[in-house]
Amino acid sequence: MKPNGKVVAVVVLACAVVGCSKRGDSKAKTTESVQPKAVEAVTPSPAVDGEGFTGTPAPKITGPVSYADGEAAYRAKNYAEATMLFEAYTTQKPANAWGHYMLGLSAWKSGDLTKSESAFQTSLHIDPKHMKSYVNFSRVLIEQKRYDDALAELTKAGEIDPESATVQRLMARAYNAKGDFDQAIDAYRMAIALDGTDAWSMNNLGLLYLDRGFPADALPWFAKAVETKDNVAAFHNNLGMALEHSGRFVAAATAYKGALEADPNYGKAKQNLARVEAVKSGPEEPFDLAELARGTDEDRKVTDETRASK
Questions:
Q1: Does pTM surpass 0.85?
Q2: Residue 65 near residue 92, CB atoms below 8 Å
Q3: SS3 167
Q4: How far apart are CA 160 and CA 173, in angstroms?
């Protein structure tokens, strides 16, 4: 679907916009320059994006280990230790797909992408329908910039679970990284159609439009992301960026203040707020978040109808 919004000139330089990815979902970048890139959610436990590879040096493993041993080390973010424990566990239980899956996660987090890839492949050899292995294997591939390989794995995952918004969101990430923006937009729209609470896909879709110079198309998606999950400072900040690019400086200031309410230490929003408050602008239409968010309704209806026709 092609964007149709009209670019509105802005008299100030745009400040940084937050971006990320669900990994490395990467993938998660914490800051972006004037040209924002898509972000992914950062979530706790196995499928995590954007966390650093932290932990303590791994001890030598002696004697038998349990799955719980490895999982405890993983949850404590001792990823090198978790990798060694799950290596030992998979030697003891070579037919357990979950053991290889957790080895893949742990190795990924400890920075050993080769070992991670091998573990996920083994898990999928044992259980060809192991969705979590497909999903996280694709994240490892995206981190390596192997986007076509990631899309191939995600296509298999989508055949197993056509209702997975996560699969569509990751496909959008891969398409975006390849420069296939229309495909990325369609995949984000499908993710939102599958999960109407997927605020990160809404935010990422807004970033795609803003990155291409269509703030008017970005606005409703940022507003919907804020409306859906209002405690994420990045969503408020990105909404402010789209408003600022549209010449609505007073409204942008309101959005930046919202970012600081969500996170008082959010430096980008502080800089952005100071900048727009220094701009002398004329009268503006009132800032109405709900009204902006309703701009996605017709778009989502069309996507839902397209999905239902397949």
A1: no
A2: yes
A3: helix
A4: 20
